Fold these 3 entries.
Entry 1:
Amino acid sequence: MATTTSTIEITEADKAAVVSVPARIIAAWANHDAKAFADVFTADGTMILPGFYRKGADEIEAFMAGAFQGPYKGTQVTGTPLDLRFLTSDSAIVITQGGVLAPGQSELADDRAIRATWVVVKQAGEWKLAGYQNSPRGAA
């Protein structure tokens, strides 16, 4: 049985747009803007954090609104892409490393360092976050 592989064409603009998805989350977090944070997700997007699972932009927005008033109040978030893979011309996976900076911190504490997987899809010409999951970074 012969198998065929097709080459997908990815533009530099698409690469830049996909890599900008984490930056949009960082910007929304910097402003503690739960709506802008949730708007990065698809309508049925999922967010998995240690101990939490939220599905849909409305659930994600409500969760983050509470978090920005509670445990994430005054925090910032940081992240650096480690890997980018396109699955198709309109879907990609980004792996990042970063974490939450406590108020007043400029360096990420090891106990707050995470690695994250971002599943990004192109919908109506815009790259959106379909799935996000992070876990403690552990050993570097």
Entry 2:
Amino acid sequence: MKLEKIKLTNFRNLDEIEIKTNPRLNLIFGPNGSGKTNFCEAIYFASTGNNLKGRRQRELINWDSEYTLVKLATANDDVVVVYLETGDRKELKVNSKNARQSDLRSLIPTHIFVPGDLYIPKGPPQQRRDMLNRQLGLLSADYGKRLSEYQSELKKKNTLLKKDKMNEEFLSVLNERLVDLGVEISLKRANYLQRLNERLPEIYGLFGPPEEKLSLHYAEDISPESSKEELKALLMNQLEENRDREMKQETSVVGPHRDKFEYRLNGKNLRKFGSQGELRTAVISTYLAYLNLYEENFEEWPILILDDILSELDRGRGESFLENLPEAPQIFMTTATRDSAFKKLSGEFSVLRINGGKILQK
């Protein structure tokens, strides 16, 4: 997927702009606070319906305006328009016809990499779960559906656990449903990790000694070879063992929403023994491996947004990252300063300069 033109009206601090994009690499320069991230957020918001900063969609509208509009023209001759008005009125259209957000997610698949992602290997388990959920959700619509169903049932259970009077029969029904969905989710995650680990060592070797082998694993005893019956029995036992704990805490503490994953470098837990450089290289390698899997699945690439990643990498890793970016996907990459590392870029690219909400295309 590639974009040919982008038009923005009243989006955050940006003036009305209309640009023609480069099919490969778009470098977006500008000082902090100039609107670089806002420009990328407009693409991400149109595709996913999510903000990059904050949760209220009203914040996307310029303070002096009552609406914002994002218009994207693709290389496939589709035109996507997202219109958002104060009061949370929102319209989505593809080629002048009403559309759903799911239509846009599949039409303009977009993956974003922000500086905070570099801390995923060292951060809490939730961050690694979120990373896998985002990646698997784009690779498999079925995974996204199962995860959504699981979260819906989990919400019902947590509501039930907070009630003064427990409906034991309903709790049993919910647990059975959560186990069935949870087993499917865990197996899909295990299979995905297996595919990632077939690629991670080679990609990690691009940034460091080739003899160092990176992998990402379930912390629990779950693998692609696990049968549904084994996992179902395991999860049911865990629910029974933690029944009193869940009742006391009034929340579910067992299931894939609590799964833990760990990076290993040469078999050692990277979170405990890895340097900052190794930890950051691990997540970069994971994202590059994911992109390869996406292309293998769909025979096309998602749009890739890289927001100020180089600011968190040392010069050596930053240059290696730029040298090993895949050439096929369309990339939007922001940076606060014009780094000498960009001089080593090969191939076609365009430069956008943003300052004070205004944009200059070179």
Entry 3:
Amino acid sequence: MSILKKALTTAAIATALMAQAAAAENVKVALVVKALGIGFFEAAAKGAEEAAKELGDVEVIYTGPTDTTAEGQIEVINSLIAQGVNAIAVSANDKDALVPTLKKAMERGITVISWDSGVAPEGRMMHLNPSSNALIGNTIIKLAADHMPEGGDVAILSASATATNQNIWIEEAKKVLPNYSGVNLVATVYGDDLADKSYREAQGLMATYPNLKAIIAPTTVGILASCQAVTDAGKIGQINVTGLGLPSEMAGCVESGATQSFAIWNPIDLGYAATMLSYNIVKGAAVGDGAEIGMGRMGTAKLDANGEAAMSDPFTYDKSNIEQFKSIF
């Protein structure tokens, strides 16, 4: 072999080794979602990849169970611990059931945060709420009340009965009900973020409460399933479906009139912010009451005494703006 070829070969080997070393130094951030195949979380994954590209030394592992169970998430998290990831950012199916496994992760030196749906404080280093819980609770009631000038019966179709975020929002919604004269909450049911079960629960609400004026679903799966159920029942104009949804999925509901308006924060931003926070904590950012941690283009998360921070206010979508946003997320 000529000297030149030897030099080129040596350089190629060195380059490969350097690339391997660089890859080994990447911060591995696992984005653990409630379940795979949900549009909200797929949009969040896009934001996580955006953050990884911006940071340059981050590898995002997007993962979750096939259904919205704590057991499925625990299995996924145990696998991530075995892989030796640097950070786990989880949207929890159960705030308490995940704690022992996440404690084990932190004992191994893994940064653990929750986002979207929280984990009990002992099982994470911080939690990122998409928005203020009180503001979300008020928003979902107001979305219904705005189109019920004379009041009427409303029902809530939630995700799972153990979903931390859903339960907090529902409690906040109940607190503000007295502010909306004539709005009467008749039931809260659970669709487990499964389209078919949510559809059946919406059908059950319509059958049980013939004077129902609105179904409020603070879950992207539930609101879409409810819209379909109301449409199939021929009750557009009689029952308004509202809550939290994705513009890309809800555009048809708004256009048909099944949904007058709905709200959501940008899940792309939420996945981006969760990844940025995970990275900065891995790199040494302090956590605790009053701590401020960078979220890139989303600004700074300021933690309260419970180790929680809010990302941004929810935004309302209706016929005036749905075209603008439905192609984005």
